Structure prediction request, 100 residues.
Amino acid sequence: MADAAPHDRRRLVIDSATESCSVALFEDGALIAGECLMLGRGHAEKLVPMIAALPDRGRAATILVNSGPGSFTGIRVGLAAARRLPWPGMPRCAVTTAPT
Prediction:
């Protein structure tokens, strides 16, 4: 049996819900690359280039997006970026960072 492609074991995590804008790429649970910028504003302009700068342009088997709490606009930016990434059939999941 052939080995899985490297991106099959990866998760892309996006957080644009707060003043910071973050992307991280994990493989088998280990962080392999990431970036966090304190922006305040301008997440929409920075997020996609941050993803593109990750190894293999951020390609992953799953995308996780922070769905709050946080700025409605920031959450929308993260979710929209995840929806528009050009990898059909990839699971996308919104996760909350609210304490339970």
